[in-house]
Structures are given as structure tokens and as C-alpha cells.
Amino acid sequence: MHFTSPQQRSTYTFVFVIVLCGILWTGYSLGTEHHDFGLGSLRRPSTHHRSRPVEKTVQPPGFPYTHAVDVTVPAGVKVIGLVFFGRRELVQVLDCYLKRNLKEYGGLLDEVIWSVNTDKEDDLAYLEELVASNSRYRKHEATKKYEWYIGAWEAVQDPHAIYLKIDDDVVYFEDNAIPALVKRLLENPQYFTVSANIVNNPALSWVHRNMGVYEGYYPEMTQPHPPAPKNSWRASELPSYKGPIEGPEGFAINASTPAPFRGHRWLPIRLPKGETYDMSLSPASLLAYDPFGPGLYNWAAASQTHYSFLHHLEQGDTWRYKFNIWDYDYMRLSINFLAIRGKDVMDVFPFPQKDDESYLVQTRPSELRRRVIIDGTALAVHFAFNNQYTAFEGKGIRWTDALDRYKAYADQMICPGLRRVEIKEVS
């Protein structure tokens, strides 16, 4: 374009600047609507959330982040948490996540039922304090003896309610998780139950590994001097692993060796730029799409699972674990965190088989031809299965410092502003 005078040049320059600013502002507005640039927790503003600290999480386009206000719960329908209670050292982490999702804090939970599954006096004393800490908390003790975990389901007594069955060792879940599960179940009456996208869930661990979210980690085999700092959850603060690339001496990726010492850390493999760690050398390489595979019993694979997740939690890219839905096709699924209608439990309670898990995700759904699906947008972390705990007389996952790291995260990022119940010591 040819300008014939300085006045024309000035006019066109001014118009160009105005148009450019408009384009940039529109792009910024759209970007913040979808991404929040990692500065917020991707919830819609609400005065009910004033006690919630900022949580760094970024969602790429295509992954919905379901807020409580996005869910229309029909009149007369309650949303109830049902926790199988047994271990106070794990519940002290879960407690804050549940309170954060109660109605008074902008969540969907009308109440939380702690269904007693222990006879240990210290745990039961802790439960009394826990129930006293919030008016929406209550406990349920089975009125008669049932086999295995069946008695915990006796607490389901409202056919119209949606129950969130949660294991006591769920040590992390997003604010998005409960709203996503409730919304998915309400909108899909053909689903029998909807599970969260669980980190450390046997077959799902294989799915996550194949999504490329696992990081290279090996155990620290000797105690550091000076001792490692406490109350840290950040992977970036861990020292680098320095040993052989195939793993430290005295450690086997198939979990045939015990944990080296109580409270040991797993250290990240940090290679020079341009080099890539061969994941076939890691415990995660043994994971299989099998509910009874290494993801159930391999304490080393579970450790790598947790330290990899904590890495992504700090990076703010836990969206890498996500997908839309995964149909389990009546295969067994570990029921660590799921949504189910009260009526679907009450219609068949007490269950005709003692294995509640198999009955609720395989037998009963097959009879009704109603699917069991995973909502891949509802992310949660399950700490450990019994085999991961009891390996080598307890020298397995519990001998890592992973649980301490999840507690440190909850202390810093979830619990502020909430009345939490601490324990004096962990046995």
C-alpha cells in the first residue's frame, strides 16, 4: 500500500494497532477461559471456594474439567461419600480431600459415611475424633456379621442417592473427580457404575504406562547423610540417581527383593539432554493389562507409579493421564473410587457372593447388561494393595516415603482453611 502523506501513515498505523490489540485481547480471553494459564485450579469463581488454596493444574483443549456447578443433581437426590474405614494414617490424608468436596466448601457431598472395617482401638478412637470434626461426617457399624467387605455396604440405605465408594487409602483426587463421576452417572442410566481414573490400579497402571507418563526411578539403597529433609513432596528436590542404568545392586524390578530401609526415597534418573531412559529396565515394564498381574502385587512397580505421579503433579501436567471413557467390558476392576446408585446396591444386598468387587463390576452388570466404565477425566490416586503392603513382612511400598509425600502435598495444597484431624504417631 502506498501512503501519500505523513497524515495517512499515522492514521493507518493507529488503526492497525487498535485491530492488533483487539486480536490479542480476544486470544488472551479465550486462552484463559480454557487454560487459566496454570495459575488457577480450573474451577469457576465462587465465594464457596474461598478456603481452597490455588492448585496448579493445566488442562489442554478436549479434556473437560467438571465443576460442581456444572452438575445438575435432581431434587431429592443426595450425593454421599462411603468410605471403607480402617487405617488412620491413610485417612488423615483423605480427610482434607473429602472436606474440600462438602457442600459448604462448594462441593457436591451432602454427607460422608465412614463404614467401620477395623477393630483396632487406636483407629477407632481416631474415627471418633474424625466424625466429631464435621457435622456431615457420620460412622456406620454393620448390624450383623458379613463375609469379607460386604458389611461396609450395609450403610447404603437411600435408594435415590448416588454413593461415592472410596477406599481409605485414596491419597489424592482432583476437585474435578466427584463432579465428573456424578455427572457421568446421572447422564448415563445405562451405566451400572462409573469408576474414577485410578493411579495404582492394576490394569489401569498398564494403560497409564502405555500413555507415556511413567518416569525413570530407582530406590535409594543406603541412608543419606545428613538425613533427607522431611515434609517435601516435590520431585525436583530429590537428588539424581547415580548408579548403574539397569538399577542398583541388590534391587530387582520384579519385586523379588525387599525395600532397602524404612522411609527410603526413590530417585529420578536424570540423563544428559538428548538421551532417553529405556523404560524396559524399570519395574513398570512388567505391568500388564491384567487385574491380577504385577500391578496388584509388585511393590516396586507401585513405587515407580507414585513417584512418577508426584513428578507430574509438580509439573502441573497430570492431564497426561486422562482420556474420555474406558469400557471395562465386564472385566474385573479394583473398586477404589467409584459412583453407584443406592438402588443398584440395595436391590441385591446382601450380595449373593462374598467378593463384593467381583459381584459389583462383573456378575451383576453382566446380568443387567449395563456397562462398567472408567471416567478418564476423574483422576485419583490409590496408595497400595495388600500384596504391595505385605511383601517381605511389610518391607514393601510402606517402606518408601511416598505416603509422607502425599501427606506433605495435602498439608500444603489441600488442608489449609479446613478443620483436619491429625494423629500423633503412625504405627
SSE layout and pairing:
Elements: H1 6-34, E1 79-85, H2 88-100, E2 111-116, H3 121-132, E3 137-140, E4 162-167, E5 170-173, H4 177-187, E6 191-199, H5 202-210, E7 217-219, E8 266-268, H6 294-297, H7 299-315, E9 325-327, E10 337-341, H8 342-346, H9 356-368, E11 371-382, H10 386-390, H11 402-414
Parallel strand pairs: 1-2, 1-4, 2-3, 6-11
Antiparallel strand pairs: 4-10, 5-11, 6-10, 7-8, 9-11
Helix pairs in contact: 2-11
Describe the structure.
By secondary structure, this protein is α/β, with parallel strands linked by helices. It contains 11 helices and 11 strands. It folds into 2 domains: 205 residues, Spore Coat Polysaccharide Biosynthesis Protein SpsA, Chain A, CATH 3.90.550; 107 residues, no CATH class. Strands 1, 2, 3, 4, 5, 6, 9, 10 and 11 form a 9-stranded mixed sheet that branches. A two-stranded antiparallel sheet has the order 7-8. The longest helix has 29 residues.
Low-confidence stretches: 1-57
Total count of domains? 2
The helix/strand class is: alpha/beta
CATH superfamily of the largest domain: Spore Coat Polysaccharide Biosynthesis Protein SpsA, Chain A
Keywords: Membrane, Transmembrane, Transmembrane helix
Transmembrane segments: 12-31
